[in-house]
């Protein structure tokens, strides 16, 4: 679960900006857990990324508040992803065009339980 913090459409030569914040996880047992999530990857349905094949380029074991920053340029067609583990927001997407997610678009998250 989460919220859209900023949704600015592209106009007058200004980029579009979409800022997301994931705040809780709904578990299989029905419980809800507050979380801090950072978007560490953004992938289209047509990409060759396979989330369960071990093809991720970063390993969660070394992420710390001082080191994790993701700048995935052209993550989706003309959309850049920027995130930092120390930020309250999960990630910011920027584009010179309006941002649209097609069915099958996936986010990879680094998740920590809050509290």
Question: Can you tell me about this structure?
Answer:
The protein is 0% helix and 49% strand. It contains no helices and eight strands. It has strands spanning 2-8, 16-22, 24-26, 32-43, 69-76, 79-84, 91-95, 106-113. The strands form two sheets. Strands 1-2-7-6-5 form a five-stranded antiparallel β-sheet, with no helix packed on it. The chain has a three-stranded antiparallel β-sheet with strand order 3-4-8, with no helix packed on it. The relative contact order is 0.30. Mean pLDDT is 85; it is low at 52-56.
Structure keywords:
115 residues, mainly beta, 5-stranded antiparallel β-sheet, 3-stranded antiparallel β-sheet, 8 strands, 0% helix
Overall form: globular
Q: Would you count the extended β strands for me?
A: 8
Q: Main beta sheet: strand number and arrangement?
A: 5 strands, antiparallel
Taking strands numbered 1, 2, ... along the chain, how are they ordered across the largest sheet? 1-2-7-6-5
Distance between the termini: 17 Å
């Amino acid at each position: 679960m989460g919220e859209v913090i900023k949704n600015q459409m592209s106009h007058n030569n200004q980029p579009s900006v979409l800022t997301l914040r994931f705040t809780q996880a709904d578990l299989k047992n029905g419980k809800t857990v507050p979380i801090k999530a950072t978007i560490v990857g953004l992938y289209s349905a047509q990409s060759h990324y396979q989330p369960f094949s071990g093809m991720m380029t970063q390993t969660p074991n070394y992420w710390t508040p001082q080191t994790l920053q993701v700048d995935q340029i052209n993550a989706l067609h003309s959309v850049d992803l920027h995130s930092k583990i120390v930020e309250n927001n999960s990630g910011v997407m920027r584009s010179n065009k309006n941002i649209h997610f097609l069915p099958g678009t996936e986010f990879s998250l680094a998740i920590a339980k809050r509290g």
